[in-house]
C-alpha cells in the first residue's frame, strides 16, 4: 500500500505527456492507485518496469503525487521548519516541496510568525485525510509505556528551553528534561539534535536526561579533558575541590560534581597533584 508522507519504492508503469505513472502492480494489479511523477521530476534515463524511490504527498488539489525532492520532515516525525506565510486559516511552512505544509491555528502552541522557525510534528488529519503539522508537540509524546531504561543512550531533539532546563524529545517517543545546571553549552537551541543518556526515571515516569555519559564512563572523557587543559596551560589549573562551580564551568564546561570525580580518578592514577592553589600535572605526563 502506498503511504502518504513517506518514501515509497514504486514501479514505473507508463510514460505519458504529463509524466510517469508509478504504482505497485502486485498489490494493485488494476492500477486504481497509480500515482503521477510530474515531468519536472522524471529522471533523464528510465525504463518501464524498473523501480524508483519517491516521496508521496498531496498536491494543491489534495491528490496523491510523487516527487524526487527530499522533504525536511516525514510522517510522524519532528523537524524545525520555517514559516513561509500566514493567512486567515493558518500558517504554511517550508518543508522542501512545492506545496507548503499547513499548520491550522488550533495546532499552533503560540501564534506563528512569517520567517520564524518552529518545531513541529507531521501527521495525517483524520477528518480531512490531509498532511498537516502541529507545534503542540506534547500531544504526540507519551511517558506512559516507557521503552527505555536508566543508562540508555538515546537520540534527543530540543523541544523548548525554560528557566528549569532543556525540555527534550527522547527517541521521538518520550519527553524528558535536562536540568539547566547540567548544561554547559550556551549555543543549544530549539530543534537541535544530539545524543543523551537516561539519568533517572521517576515514579511518575518523568525522565531526567544527561548530555554526558553516566557513572564511570563519564569520568574518562572528562578526565581526559582536564588532562588536555592542563597540558595547554603549562601543567597547572587554578582549580580544586574548593573552587566555585561557576569557575569550573567557565574553564572546563563541566559541573563541580563531575570535576571532582574526574580529578579524583586522575589523582588515583597518579597523573596529577592536588594542592591548595590548584591542580598540577605530574611532570612525566607533560
Sequence-ordered SSE layout with sheet pairings:
Blueprint: E1 7-15, E2 19-23, E3 35-38, E4 51-58, E5 64-67, E6 78-86, E7 90-94, E8 101-104, E9 117-124, E10 131-134, E11 153-161, E12 165-170, E13 174-179, E14 193-201, E15 207-210, H1 216-232, E16 236-237, H2 245-252, H3 256-268, E17 272-275, E18 278-281
Antiparallel strand pairs: 1-2, 1-4, 2-3, 4-5, 6-7, 6-9, 7-8, 9-10, 11-12, 11-14, 12-13, 14-15, 16-18, 17-18
Helix pairs in contact: 1-3
Order of helices and strands: EEEEEEEEEEEEEEEHEHHEE
Percentage of helical residues? Answer: 10-25%
**Fraction in beta strands:** 35-45%
The helix-and-strand class reads mainly beta
Q: Architecture of the largest domain in CATH?
A: Orthogonal Bundle
What is the terminal separation in angstroms? 64 Å
Tally of strands = 18
CATH homologous group name of the largest domain: Winged helix-like DNA-binding domain superfamily/Winged helix DNA-binding domain
Total domain modules: 4
- What is the average per-residue confidence, as pLDDT, rounded to a whole number? 91
CATH class category label of the largest domain: Mainly Alpha
CATH topology of the largest domain: Arc Repressor Mutant, subunit A
Give me the Rg, rounded: 26 Å
SS summary, helix count: 3
Q: What is the overall shape?
A: elongated
